[in-house]
Fold:
Amino acid sequence: MTPATTSSASRSHPATAEQAPRDAPDTPSATPQHPIDPDGLSWPALSTTRRRNESEQDKMARWQRCAAAIRTVLECLGEDPDREGLRKTPERYAKALMFFTRGYEASLLQTINGAVFDEDYDEMVICKNIEIHSLCEHHLVPFVGRVSIGYLPDKKVLGLSKLARIADMFARRLSVQERLTKQIALAIDEILRPQGVGVFMECSHMCMVMRGVGKTTSKTVTSFMHGVFRRDAKTREEFFRLAKD
Structure:
């Protein structure tokens, strides 16, 4: 379940040093870059751009190259890729990898699909406990967890399911949790231009559980605040309280 929560936010507080007006520029240290390009790939490599635009024939050729590479990996592990249990593993795993990274084939505009609505609502909107699954780009092993997304609208709201779809679009790529958290926030800011956006994420990383330090109960927590969520402590505290409840 991904319950959506609406709550009273600190929109009515007078502007102070901690809370600048909406049209006041952020300080340089508080102003994130907006690396969300129009097609929604975000920091795309040339190869990922090609993947989204390739033909069915090109997709098949990519899958076959991936399967051949996985066969080589099995051989490097000391396995026999022709034994019964592994005979179709290269093809199966290549198909699975294409699914795990299908976010490269999605665009932000396609994901939103026009679900931005004019609405005279200016209190906080939160969709929390959204399950996410991604692959760490350092070891190509999974990290899994939950993300909570909140924003303070400025006369526009987003279809609630689109918050989860945006998170999934970026998660289904090779990533790191820190960047994934930021990408989700900046994408929502790019779409809605709200008063502020907050993203809170908690994940378990298999690179810490299955290898290395082997800490099976460890969790990694990241957050990214933008706009009034960054400037105003009361708004930020309200978001964290609701996101963690």
